[in-house]
């Protein structure tokens, strides 16, 4: 994947059994993130276990990229996300193939009306929200406009960059406005984990929140006050010349043991206001 496209962090909020794993897995498959042979393998294994509908959901396990989902209900999630600063919203009205009758326009419109009423209450402008009628299992309106819902003419949103109108879930994702990168601020990189890799050494991993991380930089981890040099930086198994805010990276460091730093420590540039222990 490398750096050819802007990286966007997406939060999936849903109620239990809404089909989010199947939808995400099917989207990854259709975008070429996993091959047909692997999908066929999942389909066979799932059928043998009596879980034939799990073949796309297992894509996330194969990629070791299972998202961290929040527990609870969709309304609570929407309120929490908006309160925490998530202002761009896409609503995938899933399982349209399971309505009565299948692909019911009436049921879709009922859901859109109900969700619009709620998001208004929490402060979200419905005009900025893309509603997409989809089937995560069958792939309707994920990459291509589905013939099963001729009544669905697509979605239209208003944003600070103007108006946008498309038809599919992928197009809705592509219309997300990337956040501004606070590269001018001091480096802050909270550690998600720390690994010891044979032949390489200690590799902390985490997401750059502010600033820039580069090979050759001297960083200090707070609050343990461990200082070391960054030997290399990688994302998706590709070496980077620099990592920017929003990038989830691993970086190899010199003369540091996995016991010296841990999850929750914050890496900062030793020469530019590194993090400090607060009492």
Question: Could you describe the 3D structure shown?
Answer:
- By secondary structure, the protein is of the alpha+beta class.
- The protein has two domains: 20-174, Rossmann fold (3-Layer(aba) Sandwich), CATH 3.40.50; 189-269, Elongation Factor Tu (Ef-tu), domain 3 (Beta Barrel).
- The chain is 22% helix and 22% strand.
- It has helices spanning 20-30, 36-48, 59-62, 74-83, 105-121, 169-174, and strands spanning 90-93, 130-133, 155-159, 162-166, 189-197, 201-207, 218-222, 226-235, 238-239, 248-253, 266-269.
- The strands form three sheets. A six-stranded antiparallel barrel has the order 5-6-10-8-7-11. Strands 1-2 form a two-stranded parallel sheet. Strands 3-4 form a two-stranded antiparallel ribbon.
- The radius of gyration is 22 Å and the shape is globular.
- This is Elongation factor 1-alpha 1.
- Residues 5-46, 72-174 form the Tr-type G domain.
- GO terms for molecular function: GTP binding; GTPase activity; translation elongation factor activity.
- Pfam families: GTP_EFTU, GTP_EFTU_D2.
Short description:
The protein has 279 residues and is α+β, with helices and mostly antiparallel strands. It has 6 helices and 11 strands.
Q: What is the architecture of the largest domain at the second tier of CATH? A: 3-Layer(aba) Sandwich
Let me know the number of strands: 11
Q: Cα distance, first to last residue?
A: 41 Å
Structural class: alpha+beta
Which tags fit this structure?
Rossmann fold; Elongation Factor Tu (Ef-tu), domain 3; 6 helices; globular; GTPase activity; T_Tr_GTP-bd_dom
């Amino acid at each position: 994947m490398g750096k050819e496209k802007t990286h966007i962090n997406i939060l999936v909020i849903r109620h239990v059994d809404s089909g989010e794993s199947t939808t995400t897995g099917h989207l990854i498959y259709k975008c070429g993130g996993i091959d047909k042979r692997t999908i066929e393998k999942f389909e066979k294994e799932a059928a043998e276990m009596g879980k034939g509908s799990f073949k796309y959901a297992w894509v996330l396990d194969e990629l070791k990229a299972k998202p961290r989902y929040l527990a609870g209900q969709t309304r609570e999630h929407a309120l929490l996300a908006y309160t925490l600063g998530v202002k761009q919203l896409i609503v995938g009205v899933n399982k349209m193939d399971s309505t009565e009758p299948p692909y019911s326009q009436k049921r879709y419109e009922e859901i859109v009306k109900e969700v619009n009423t709620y998001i208004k209450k929490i402060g979200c402008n419905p005009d900025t929200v893309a509603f997409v009628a989809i089937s995560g299992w069958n792939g309707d309106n994920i990459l291509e406009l589905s013939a099963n819902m001729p009544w669905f003419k697509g979605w239209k949103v208003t944003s600070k960059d103007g108006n946008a109108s498309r038809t599919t879930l992928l197009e809705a994702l592509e219309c997300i406005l990337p956040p501004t990168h606070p590269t001018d601020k001091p480096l802050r990189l909270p550690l998600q984990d720390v690994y010891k890799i044979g032949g390489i050494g200690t590799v902390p991993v985490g997401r750059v929140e502010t600033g820039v991380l580069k090979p050759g930089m001297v960083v200090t981890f707070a609050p343990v006050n461990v200082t070391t040099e960054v030997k290399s930086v990688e994302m998706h198994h590709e070496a980077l010349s620099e990592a920017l805010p929003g990038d989830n990276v691993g970086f190899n460091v010199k003369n540091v043991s996995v016991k010296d730093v841990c999850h929750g420590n914050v890496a900062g540039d030793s020469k530019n206001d590194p993090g400090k222990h607060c009492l």
